[in-house]
Amino acid sequence: MPAPIFALVDCNNFYASCEKLFDPRLAGVPVVVLSNNDGVVVARSAEVKALGLPMGQPWFKVRDLAKRHGIVAFSSNYTLYADMSNRVVNVLAQFSPDLEVYSIDESFLDLSGHVPESLAAYGRSIRERVRQWLGLTVCVGIASSKTLAKLANHCAKKNLAGTGGICDFTAMSAAELDSLMARIEVGEIWGVGRQLAPKLHAMGIRSVKALRDADPGQLRQRFSVVQERIVQELRGIPCLSLEDVTPDRQQIISSRSFGERVHDLQSLQEAVTSHICRAAEKLRNQDSLAGAVTVSIRTSPFNPNEPRYQKSLTVALPEASADSRILTRAALKLLGQSYRQGYAYQKAGVMLSDIRPRRLRQPSLFSAIGNDEDNRRLMQTLDHINSRWGRGTLRLAAEGTDFGWRMKRGHLSPAYTTNWETLPRLIAR
DNA sequence: CTATAACTCTCAA
DNA sequence: CTAACGTTGAGAGTTATAG
Which nucleotides of B are covered by protein (CB under 7 A)? Predict the structure, then answer.
């Protein structure tokens, strides 16, 4: 078993780059992509970063500034991003069969046993091929643990070390690494977030190097195993392995903010039903059953002038199920218990939990024989129709037809890569 | 008391 | 015109509860 070598490949400004890719007029133009409901800025092109517009800002707060700088905004187009993401993964898979898709724009590759004489050159060829085949730019961080590979990737992106978007820690001397790590904020480390960073600061640990050289036992005492593992990983002792098989979900959530505030129970019922159907579809997709359903509704947590209300209720089902109708009945009952009139609701969501494979089904003593099989085939047919003809082709009537609660998507780009209908528009310009 | 379930907090993209 | 601020999933630790 050779010492592991990890590469972390991360697409630059992924969402913004996807948008630019299909509209050459956007070359050199600052572009932002907004979260669902056009809420906050979640991706920025290089030009926007240069302007100093921060990540995570509510769009309405920065809109004027953005207009003045000629920033073009897009609503999240997940159909496009997911499709481009798959294409990137397909290219990366050519470089190593041991690949973990970590997020929509990041993958870990196990490079152990691959061209040990020049890992950086291998990284460059990855970057070149993704650029050539897809027009997207990636950075590659290479190191002996996943945490270090993430850090190396950070260095590549910020041009702190390495060249041309590639940073290989395994080729650096101990002294080089020391001085590099001394210059990087501890908060940049994977797993050191908003809460932990200030606590580490208070202990006098401000740099990556300081954390690497800290006492792991003491950190475990004070915090948890997670922090102890981070220290080991920073020292090049891998504690995390490549997770190449994605396990079944243990919980499935569907929740969304409304485009406009919602006041009436009927709209909430329709929204909750849609959420259940979306979650149940995912549940069936992994051939599982859910044993519990949770429904949450809330008013805006931001507006101090609005009366606040939030409620979240869970029920255990008498018999685990993946039937949209059964799950909906349970959810609507919970919603009825949660709903209070007179509030301006901002968001509703559902969670399916206590999830198990369908093959472990335990029929209740009182369930009618055969019913379940009929229901399953009905759901199968429904999924089949929706996968063939598009999401939402066949729906429960309880989802309604009004959709006044649907999210805002005022700046949506076409489904460039997944819908032929967009082709004429592309050619026309 | 222990084993486990339920809940809370944190993190990440 | 005004008001307007994402979603999903996991893991660890803590607390409550059952036996």
Answer: 6-7, 9-13
Which residue from A50, A55, A90, A87 is spatially nearest to A70, judged by alpha carbons? A50
Alpha carbon distance A108, A123 (integer Å): 12
Name the nucleotide nearest A187; use CA and C1': B11
For A244, the token pair is 């190449």
Cα–Cα distances in angstroms (integers) from residue A71 to residues A13, A75, A361, in the given order: 15, 13, 53
Choose between A79 and A117: higher pLDDT.
A79
A329-376 pLDDT per residue, tens = 999 999 999 999 999 999 999 999 999 999 887 776 666 666 788 899
Calculate the angstrom distance between C1' of B3 and CA of A354.
19
Q: CA–C1' distance A214–B11 (Å)?
A: 21
Position A154 scores a pLDDT of 97
Instruction: Please state, in angstroms and rounded to a whole number, the distance separating the CA atoms of residues A346 and A340.
Output: 13
**CB within 8 Å of A370: residues ≥ 6 apart:** none
Amino acid at A20: K
Query: CB of A104 under 7 A from strand B?
Result: yes
Separation CA A79–CA A417 (nearest Å): 9
Mean pLDDT for A98-108 is 96
Q: In 3D, which of A251, A254, A419, A429 has the Cα closest to residue A347?
A: A254
User: Which residues neighbour A200 within 8 Å (Cβ) at sequence distance 6 or greater?
Assistant: A186, A192, A206, A211
pLDDT at A429 over 90: no
Residues 6+ apart with CB under 8 A from A151: A141, A143, A169, A184, A188, A189, A190, A208, A234
User: Any atom of strand B under 7 A from CB of A393?
Assistant: no
Specify the length of chain A in residues: 429
Phi-psi region of A162 (alpha: psi -120 to 50; beta: other; left: phi over 0): left
Q: Of chain A residues 385-414, which have a beta carbon within 7 Å of strand C?
A: 407
Q: Which residue has the tokens 């973990």?
A: A100
Are residues A399 and A270 in contact, defined by beta-carbon separation less than 8 angstroms? yes
